[in-house]
Amino acid sequence: MLLGNPMLPGMKILVCLGLSVIAVTTWIGCGDPAGGNSGEKAIQIAVIPKGTTHEFWRSIEAGVRKAEQELGEQGKHVEIIWKGPLKEDDRDQQIQVVENFTTRRVTGIVLAPLDSKALVRPVETAQKAGIPVVIIDSGLESDQYASFVATDNFEGGQMAGEFMTKLLEGKGNVILLRYAVGSASTEKREDGFLNVLKVHPEIKLISSDQYAGPTRETAYQASQNLLNRFGKDVDGIFCVNENSTIGMTKALREIGRAGGDVKMVGFDAGSQSIKDMENGDIQGLVVQDPLRMGYEGVMTMMKYLDGDEVEKRIDTGVVMVTLENMTEPSMHDLLHPPFEKYLK
After folding, report:
1. Mind listing the pLDDT tens digit for each residue in 288-344?
2. How is the chain split into domains, by residue range?
3. What Rg do the C-alpha atoms of the chain give, in angstroms?
4. What phi, psi does 186 have (nearest 5°)?
5. Half-sphere exposure at residue 285, Cβ-oriented, CA atoms within 13 angstroms
6. Helices (H), the chain
7. Within a 10 A sphere around the Cβ of 15, how many other Cβ atoms?
8. Are 286 and 257 in contact (CB under 8 A)?
9. Which of 56, 70, 188, 256 would bridge with 154, disulfide CB 3.0–4.6 Å?
10. Could you give phi then psi for residue 282, rounded to 5 degrees?
11. How far is CA 108 from CA 125, 132, 134, 265, 293, in A?
12. What's 147-192 look like in SS3?
């Protein structure tokens, strides 16, 4: 039986070293869960848009950076990684980006899916790996995500249909130029527009099966093809996103039917479309709030990571902008997002 302190001097040194390691480890592991100044690794949120060239995505990024700034001012150590495919029809590249961020073990992913079906598997894989995903802009055929932050695109399409009906006084020949197969956001707009036209039998849909594609150039080519066939007969045209609106307006000018001869309704408020409206070549634009969408996407992710309850669906709003109301103060930031304030 040992009496007194049983530890030998060497054992005392080992125990002291062990306690010191535990103390240091505990100090490093504690502190502000969002990073703060504790030395802990920053929360990394990967934001993956459909593309990076259109002004719409610049507005989304401005909202994302606004959220990043505010979180920093709150003392939270959040790193935003902005990375999307080069082309808006490159599903494989977007899938690869999601998979790469999952492998890197980022803290969370905010994603605008290019394809409502093709992105289901990589999103569900990220969720199963413990990386939450917030969907923005365009829907996903799955409910395995934290929240969906977007415009009510069906309502936006209905607005376009109702405004077109008003412009045409209930009768005429109409073209719907679609965007791309699998793009849930624009498909909802198309559905909303067609839903309104169903109850107006004197409005004839003379084309609704053509797609603008991912760029202004592909949209312009599709528009030229449509106008070569229907240019003399068409009375109104609805285009469902920024590049299709710009491409079609340009094609209408070239055949001398812009300026209100053909009633033109578009979607989204790129700077070129705003100029075209001011010139009278576009009569109406259905406008989202992409800056708010990007902001809410990041803030919703932070709420989720903090353990707070988040809504499964967050509607960021949509309005019809015309030449008559485009100068109203409430429309200013929608039409002229403050890029310089948030984008370096």
Report:
1. 999 999 999 999 999 999 999 999 999 999 999 999 999 999 999 899 999 999 998
2. 43-151+290-315, 153-288
3. 26
4. -75, -30
5. 32
6. 9-29, 55-73, 91-104, 120-128, 153-167, 184-197, 216-230, 242-254, 271-278, 290-305, 329-335, 339-342
7. 11
8. no
9. 188
10. -120, 135
11. 13, 5, 8, 37, 17
12. EEEECCHHHHHHHHHHHHHHHCCCCEEEEEEECCCCCHHHHHHHHH
Percentage, residues of the chain above pLDDT 90: 85
Cα angle, residue 295 at apex, residues 100 and 53 outer, rounded to 5°: 60
Residue 25 identity? T
pLDDT at 344: 81
43-151+290-315 and 153-288, same CATH topology? yes
Using CB atoms within 10 Å of the CB of residue 49, give its burial: 0 to 12 exposed, 13 to 18 middle, 19+ buried: buried
Q: Kindly give, in sequence order, each residue whose CB lies less than 8 Å from that of residue 110, ignoring residues fewer than 6 positions away.
A: 45, 46, 47, 48, 64, 133, 134, 136, 297, 298, 301
**Is 323 exposed, middle or buried (CB count within 10 Å of its CB: 0-12, 13-18, 19+)?**
middle
* Per-residue model confidence as pLDDT tens digits over 249-282: 999 999 999 999 999 999 999 999 999 999 999 9
Question: What are the residues facing 344 on neighbouring strands?
Answer: none
Pick the CATH number of 43-151+290-315 from 3.30.1360.30, 3.40.50.2300, 3.40.30.120, 3.40.50.1170: 3.40.50.2300
CATH topology of domain 153-288: Rossmann fold (3.40.50)
